[in-house]
Structure formats: C-alpha cells, structure tokens
Design brief:
This protein has three helices and 27 strands. The chain is mainly beta.
Length: 589
C-alpha cells in the first residue's frame, strides 16, 4: 500500500522534461499547479464544453465559432460565416446584406450596379443607367434615353425642365402643333409667339408679338377697355381715367404657355386707391386659340401693395414667384425689406391677390412673406436698386439676388451686394459688397438699372449696370462672373463698357441716358441673353422716348440697337414688360 502511494506521489510530482504538466483527464476542479484553483487555460466561462482558449464566443453557451473573425458568432448569429464584411442575409439568397446585397429583401436579386435603387437581376432593364430601369422596346436603352417621337429630345428630358428648361410631350414631336419641333421650340406647349406689352393712354394694353429674330409685329390693343367687365362691375360704367399700369409676363399657371398679370388703376393721380389685379391667358390649342385673343379674369379688386419687379422661382417649387423691394425713404433711406410673393398655383381660381397666412385658407394667388431685412445695407443711402432676374451664383441650386446702393444723386461709386437664397423664398443678408461700380477702372457713370444673368455664355452669373444721366450718360458696364476653387467672384480685369445708349455724349450731367427699365431676355433664341430698355432720348426726364433692343453676342458685347417702338409724346418707351422664364432656355439639336 505504501508502494502505491509512493508511486502515485512520484507520478504527480514529476513529468517528462522535468516540468509540471496538465495531464489529468476531465474538467479540473483543482489545477495542476497545486494552488487550489482551476487551470487557467481550461476555463469555460459559458459552460458550453469548449474552453475559453478555444471558444470564439466565450460568453455564449450556444456558439463557439467565428471562422471569418468578424466578431459575430457563426452557429446562430452569422448568416455569412465565410465573409468578414457581413453577417446578415435577411432574404436568404446567400449574399450578405451588409456589403454584398444591394437588395436585402429580395431573394432573387442582390445587385444594383448603377445605384438607382432598382435591383438589376430582374427589375432593372438598364443596370448601368442611374436615371432609368425600364426598356419597353428592348432596344438596349432605357425609355428615358429613347426619343419616342423623333424630335431630337430624349423622353426623360421632355418630361422634366432639364437642360433645355421646358417640358413637352415625349410622344409628340411638335407638342403644340405650331410647326416647330420641340427640340427647337422655346415654348413647345405654346403654339403662339411670345410678346412684349406696353402701357397706353387708351385704357387698354398694347401687345407686340415677337418674330423671334429681334423684331416685332405692329402693336395691337388687348384687354377690356378701362377694366369694365362682367366680373369687375366696380369699373362700370366706363371710367375713362382707368389705366393698366404694370405688367408681369411669365407662365403663372405653369402650363407652358406665356401669360401675364396686369395691375389696373382707376385713378393714376391718387396713390392710395386700391388697385385691380388681372390675369390674362391664351388658349394653347392651335385649332381654337389665336395669338392675340386672351381670356381676362379679375383676381382681386383691392390690391394694396406693390408686387415688385423681380420675377423668378425663388422657393424651388417650379412656379414663378415675385419679389418686391420695399423702402422707407423720408429723405434718405431709413428702412428696407424684401417681400416674396410665392405662387400657390391658383391663378385660374383665386379671388384674392395675396395672403400672409402660410396655410392660405382663401386660396389666394400668392403668399406674401418677409424675405430679407436689408436696412443694414442701405441705411442713409439715397437709392437702392434690384436686378429683375435672380441667378444661382454659388451652385447650391437656389436663386440669388443682386442689388446696388447709391449714396447721393451725383456721379458716385455704387456698391453691389449679392444676397444668397436659401431656396425657401428667403435670403441671406451679406455684410460686405462684392464690388463698387463706377469706381477705379470699371464704370463711367452711376446706375439706374442692374441686370443679373449669364451674358458671356460661360454658365456663371454676370452683371451689367449703368444707364444714368451723369458721368458718361447712357453708359452700362459688363462685369463677368467667375468661379475659382469653388468661390464666386467678379473679374474686374475683364470689365468693359457693354452698351452706350447715348454715345454722342461722353461726359455730362442731367443728360439723356437714364433707364431704370432695362431687363434681359433671349428674344431671338440663339442661347444668348439680350437687353431691352426704354429711355427718353431728347431730355433726361421727358418725352419723347423709345424702346431699344440690343441682341447679345454671347461674350458680354451686343449688336447695334434695334428700335422696337418710338413714343414721340410720352415716356412710355420705358413702360413695358417682357417674358420672364422659369429658367433660361437652351436649344437641343
């Protein structure tokens, strides 16, 4: 017995190589180091029978393997035990959701090569076209890239404003039936020519149809004389003092046809009387409509605020809005505000011009909002002016405004500010000017007009401003915009005189050359912005007057003036309106 004990003790004390060994079988309750605890390399924390040293999931009794080392146990949790980047396969298609399955809920699909959200294996006919997934005719091109009607414009382009800034019918090559294919038609849903409007003293409106080459047809009178209609009985019997005094030409019902708003005044000598707001539109059916036949409906007979001068979509809803610059000026300016008039799309039914209630319970045409307070920029200035168009200069997709200030009525420098839009009808107010016109080597007279558009066809907004009676009367200068390293600025080394409506007088004061009516539009649809303006050509402030058109060359320069119309006895050369588009049209050939 002593021998057996001695033998066991000898075996326990000695191991091959003369070191202590862990050679007992089963689970230790005592370790082999004679310290009274379990062996450290045989600990099994979760009790699953696999020691922690071999258990990839030592705290999970049901799992012990992680073959791909992704930290997710294989037996239950990892549907992709051979993929270190994934562990879930919700649809059971054998492709891990985290990195390998673009369609994790579809057992039959797992790829979306173009990232358009449509799975490739079954649903996407065009797996390399992010803008399409249906190829109805099986020609290998998505329907949006097809040209179903053969008019030279892709289907997808016709269905959105896109590169050409128009919407047309992708299955009809000449949507409006005017004989011009949609790809070459600046108004493919309007069969009749665009037009300009002039005020007259006959109680009607003068309309001149465009020939789209920089010339216009002879004026014709439109509108109910003196505003007397069945829905405006307050103007009946006829009030011979009634005048249509302001016009806004665009596409207010968003149907692709040119229409306009007109303001009617029963007494132009009384600045406080309420005004009428009218809506005029033509039929866009070439078989039943006519180019000079308009339907006239009264929107409101108690308009009590100005609707402004700028026409643009400032809240990114693809509807034409208006912006009004409101100034308090007892002597010099003490307060100034921008108000936006956001188009609600109700022009065909509205019975009120505007509301300040964003819910618009009455279905008014516009919602009027405070767009910016600019008192800090214009306080104690003699004048402030606003460009009639809005341009996205910083590439954020939102329209921006340009203004100038003028300290007095003399030959002074004029700071120019740009207010960046937020895309919701409001604008950021800057603290510094971009530059000063009529200072240094740029500008040779003050300004009464500022134009904000791309005049040199480089895709960047430019400014033309000037047309004053002082300095170089009638002079206007071009300031090219530029973008360097993503930052917009103006290139002052590239500024030059672009237009001079009074070239015979290069230095004077109170001389003909004043125009506060200048605006831009592409009248001959060559892709270059033109400038139209009215001025008094014998005296700075009195008749006679005329309306002039300068066709753009696409580089900031212009062709010689075309006289659109002469007004020998009135100043109505400057009382006109031109179309304003939602965005600039570019032909697609």
């Amino acid at each position: 017995m002593a021998f057996l004990v001695f033998f066991g003790l000898a075996a326990f004390a000695c191991s091959p190589g003369g070191s202590e060994g862990n050679n007992d079988a089963g689970t230790d309750t005592l370790n082999n180091q004679n310290d009274g605890g379990p062996d450290g390399d045989d600990v099994d924390t979760d009790g699953d029978g696999v020691p922690d040293s071999l258990d990839a999931c030592p705290n999970d009794i049901n799992q012990w393997t992680d073959a791909d080392g992704d930290g997710v146990c294989d037996e239950i949790d990892d549907a992709c035990p051979g993929d270190i980047t994934g562990w879930t396969d919700a649809d059971g298609d054998g492709h891990c959701d985290e990195a390998d399955d673009a369609c994790p809920d579809d057992i039959n699909q797992w790829t979306d090569a173009d990232g358009d959200g449509v799975c490739d294996e079954v649903d996407d006919d065009c797996p390399t076209d992010i803008n399409g997934w249906v190829d109805s005719n099986g020609d290998g091109h998505c329907d949006g890239n097809d040209d179903a009607d053969g008019d030279g414009v892709r289907n997808a382009e016709e269905e959105s404003y896109g590169a050409d800034c128009v919407i047309s019918n992708p299955y009809k090559s000449d949507t409006d039936g005017d004989g011009i294919l949609d790809g070459n038609d600046p108004y493919p849903r309007d069969p009749f020519p665009e037009y300009i409007l002039h005020r007259n003293d006959l109680g009607t409106i003068d309309l001149m149809l465009s020939n789209r080459d920089g010339t216009f047809q002879a004026p014709v009178e439109i509108a109910a004389p003196h505003g007397c209609t069945v829905d405006a009985t307050h103007n009946c019997p006829v009030n011979t003092n009634y005048r249509y005094v302001a016009f806004y030409v665009s596409d207010f019902d968003n149907n692709g046809s040119v229409d306009f708003l007109a303001v009617g005044d029963s007494d132009t000598a009384n600045a406080s009387n309420p005004l009428d707001l009218w809506y005029f539109y033509r039929s866009n059916d070439i078989t039943t409509g006519a180019s000079t036949v308009f339907t006239q409906r009264l929107v409101d007979s108690s308009l009590d605020v100005s609707l402004g001068s700028l026409i643009a979509d400032i809240n990114n809803d693809n509807r034409i809005d208006l912006v009004h610059l409101s100034v308090v000026k007892p002597a010099n300016i003490t307060e100034a505000y921008f108000y936006s008039f956001e188009n609600t799309g109700t022009v065909l039914t509205a019975t009120c011009a505007y509301t300040t209630d964003p819910l618009n319970p009455g279905g008014c045409l516009f919602i009027r909002r405070l767009a910016a307070t600019i008192t800090s920029l214009v306080f104690d200035q003699w004048n402030v002016g606003l460009a009639r168009d809005a341009v996205d200069i910083d590439g954020d997709g939102f329209r921006d405004l340009a203004i100038y200030t003028m300290a007095n009525g003399g030959d002074v420098a004029m700071p120019v500010y740009v207010l960046n839009g937020f895309g919701d009808g409001t604008f950021n107010v800057p603290t510094t000017a971009y530059f000063s016109h009529n200072s240094g080597s740029c500008g040779s007279s003050p300004a009464n007009s500022i134009l904000f558009a791309d005049f040199n066809d480089d895709g960047v907004g430019d400014i033309i401003m000037g047309f004053d009676d002082d300095g170089d009367p009638g002079s206007a200068w071009f300031y090219p915009g530029q973008v360097n390293s993503g930052v917009f600025s103006f290139n002052f080394s590239g500024c030059f005189e672009a237009i001079d409506i009074n070239p015979g007088n290069e230095n004077g004061s109170d001389q003909p050359g004043v125009s506060g009516s200048a605006r831009n539009f592409d009248f001959n649809f060559d892709g270059y912005q033109d400038v139209i303006l009215g001025w008094n050509y014998s005296s700075a402030w009195a008749a006679p007057s005329e309306t002039l058109l300068y066709l753009g060359n696409g580089d900031g320069t212009f062709q010689p003036a075309i006289t659109v119309r002469d007004f020998p006895t009135t100043t109505y050369g400057a009382s006109f309106a031109t179309p304003q588009r939602l965005c600039t049209w570019f032909p697609i050939h």
